[in-house]
């Protein structure tokens, strides 16, 4: 099928999923989890092939080392994939939640109720485990999804998708074409033009990818262009613990979008040299006062700047940050309150590593990505971020005319 036919069939599947019971969605997820586990050796073999081909691309300078690192799928990532699906199964169904009920008048009841978004297109680079995360969240939230991965993970993507698709086909009454995978760049271009069928695009990848998508579609785009995350080490921070957090936030997974890229240190912090030494010992290159603070390194490199006070740290973050995740390490309540309130990011932390910004760690089961948008979903986007709402009005044969004439009045009270 061409991309238009895929999108059209996904739209049809999304309409079938609107009223899908929780039992059906959970049964599908259980089958998906078991089938991925059943085929894991085939998936590992496919990933090994991707890694071999990707190394050639790294050697040619066509992809970065950080992209290569994201591509690898090992036993730990497989375990997390399967656990993520289990967690999604255990979560409450996000559809048909009643946010509030209001009486407009006697016998005229309005309810605001959650519902699926519809068809979601997800375009991502490397990270083949993304397929299972997004597919499981889409299934549970009643959405159809069209996935497009990077060329460097084609073999792994195909193997995981095959396991998912086989499981869904063997789930009685589950709609066909709810989860779809496309491969070519032409498919991306075509997908971005299909606002008739696709309701939301979620890009996961480089700044260049996200900007391209934002500039070439009428479809709403949810995501983040970059992950310029900061840690501000206040003068009152417990030095050994603060150093430990800074190292963790950079070294634990340097290519992640929630890894720290800039460390701001209060001029009176008593262990500045110890912090630098610890970072260097962990293999981190320190760039002091770089010409450009808006660089996302995605590697063991970090910018470092000495600041006068909390206000300077906040102003720096709001100027150069990407609205992703920023943290203050401090024992001063006034500084903490000021930082937490005035830093304009989707995640603002106190005495914690920026690496906690993750749907799995937030208990969302998995995530479709991190959003720095100021729309219906912000931060790690899990199940709730894949739902929107509708208003359901339950009446008893009322007409508007008596209210327009002033013969009847609304009560407008929450019940």
Automatic annotation (TrEMBL):
GO MF assignments: glutamate-5-semialdehyde dehydrogenase activity; NADP binding
Domain Aldehyde dehydrogenase: 2-292
UniProt KW keywords: Amino-acid biosynthesis, Coiled coil, Cytoplasm, NADP, Oxidoreductase, Proline biosynthesis
Assigned GO CC terms: cytoplasm
Annotated pathway: Amino-acid biosynthesis; L-proline biosynthesis; L-glutamate 5-semialdehyde from L-glutamate: step 2/2
Entry's localization field: Cytoplasm
Coiled coil: 22-49
Domain of life: Bacteria
EC number of the protein: 1.2.1.41
Catalyzed reactions: L-glutamate 5-semialdehyde + phosphate + NADP(+) = L-glutamyl 5-phosphate + NADPH + H(+)
Swiss-Prot/TrEMBL GO biological process terms: L-proline biosynthetic process
Keyword Oxidoreductase: yes
Family: Belongs to the gamma-glutamyl phosphate reductase family.
Described function: Catalyzes the NADPH-dependent reduction of L-glutamate 5-phosphate into L-glutamate 5-semialdehyde and phosphate. The product spontaneously undergoes cyclization to form 1-pyrroline-5-carboxylate.
NCBIfam families named among the record's database cross-references: PRK00197.1, proA
Name the UniProt record assigns to this protein: Gamma-glutamyl phosphate reductase
